[in-house]
# Entry
Amino acid sequence: MIKKIDKDQARFRQIVRGKIKKELRKYMTKSEFIGKEGKNIVSIPLPQINIPRFRYGNNETSGVGQGEGEVGSPIGQGDEKEAGSQAGDQPGQHILEVEITLEELAKILGEDLKLPNIKPKGKSTIIADKHTYTGISKAGPESLRHFKRTYREALKRQLAMGLFDPDHPLIIPIREDKRYRTWRLKEVPYNNAVIIYMMDVSGSMGDEQKELVRIEAFWIDTWLRSQYKKIDTRYIVHDAAAKEVDQHTFFHIRESGGTKISSAFTLCNEIINASYNPFIWNIYLFHFSDGDNWGVEDTKKCASLLEKELLPKTNLVCYGQVKSAYGTGQFKKDLETAFPDEEKLITSEINDLDSIYDSIKDFLGTGR
# Structure
């Protein structure tokens, strides 16, 4: 039987889900919303939801504030001498913060952007051992004792021996009554994935550009984690040289050197070779830059690394070009010229917050 409160809660969750889906493009641009991310949930401020409130009826036994009052006496507006102290008489906009799981958020994202479920590479499954409890045994550790089975056996024994007293129904199991859960190891195949983020942190990539990358990376993570059992995330920053960093450093570091994109691609390839066998792992690469590179020779080196090393090993290589007042945007054009028909290489322009929605659809809409 479903309790009424469960029905009400389910209905409320549907209302929340509908509100989020309706305004998803707006929420995808809210950096403060991403800042409220917890371990498995995020907190979202939703406007225009009617909050339950008390409705007051007539109460003729008391006054209207201090002391006794007469029926129909107006309530004063307060002290009007101080500016701004007068109470308002207009309704305010109600803001309600609700919590939603990242799994549910991913479903909403997939539905709104019409993202296909990812089809992992054929040889990308690994085998994990899973304990499944399949039977009952007369021996085992106390932590696995089956209390209902033990109680039942003790009751049966006492009834058979005439020891059960209905007026004093005390059931005391002995060693022969105890029953324990038994398990066996089951091999379960599941898919792994690794996301490697790369970002140009040279002087032309300012805080505004990094914020665009941070917001987009959150939504990419949210979707991919809904598709895979295990996700690893690695971060590479580069100017003229590349290095691996943690997540916080990735979004806050600021350098002032030149730009050699090949340094990031080289380090990325080394990380894959050292830790992620392409036959076991689904590999996703996301590189963000304003489109400037050191020169034609380095761009050729990037194309060579992509063709010979990175594209054959990965599910997807995505390049997001972030608009900057100092960037030429040439690298996106060079990639599209070098790989006009490569389905595993996706490029996208991220000009502002509103572009994030379309950029994520470009990157993840392939179902790879």
In short: The first helix runs from residue 4 to 22. Confidence is low (pLDDT under 50) at residues 79-85, 90-95. Residues 1-51+93-114 form one domain. The first strand starts at residue 41 and ends at 47.
